[in-house]
Specification:
By secondary structure, the protein is an alpha+beta fold. The protein has five helices and four strands. It binds zinc ion (ZN).
């Protein structure tokens, strides 16, 4: 079951559209099909939307992975993301034609830790994926390829 971030209902996987944009591991939109239809417009890949998705991606992953729940509010995360240059990550992604590998992503600095403001950093999707198979650490502290 998946939590829809629009209506807050738990629904089956088939009740969510697939998306290559989302951070969610299973590649689904964070709002359900009904909510998509209700809005009547296609979700735009706006910065606002992206940051929102990143937040709910963390909420969902902390549930899926049995971590401590995310304790900061979305407003706090938006402020944090702005302070951490989310816009430059976002612009790079847009300029690349929405290359999945360059999508802004939230990484846990210590991957066994929880999603706390002290243990997260912004990075690209590609780097996050690479890191999973390599080592922990800060984005700019190590000789990372991305
Ligand atoms: Zn919904």
């Amino acid at each position: 079951m998946y939590l829809c971030n629009q209506c807050g209902k738990k629904k089956d996987e088939k009740d969510f559209y697939k998306s290559d944009l989302e951070l969610a591991r299973r590649g689904l939109w964070t709002s359900c099909k009904d909510c998509h239809k209700a809005r009547g417009v296609k979700c735009k890949r706006t910065l606002r939307r992206k940051v929102r998705d990143m937040y709910f991606g963390m909420v969902r992953r902390s549930q899926d992975d049995g971590l401590q729940p995310v304790r900061f509010k979305i407003e706090t995360f938006i402020q944090w993301a702005n302070r951490n240059n989310v816009e430059s990550f976002y612009n790079r992604w847009v300029e690349s034609g929405y290359d999945k590998g360059l999508a802004p992503s939230v990484d846990r600095i210590h991957s066994t830790g929880d999603y706390t403001l002290k243990n997260i950093q912004l990075c690209t999707w590609k780097w996050n994926d690479w890191k999973k198979n390599n080592h922990d650490g800060l984005l700019f502290d190590s000789d990372t390829p991305f």
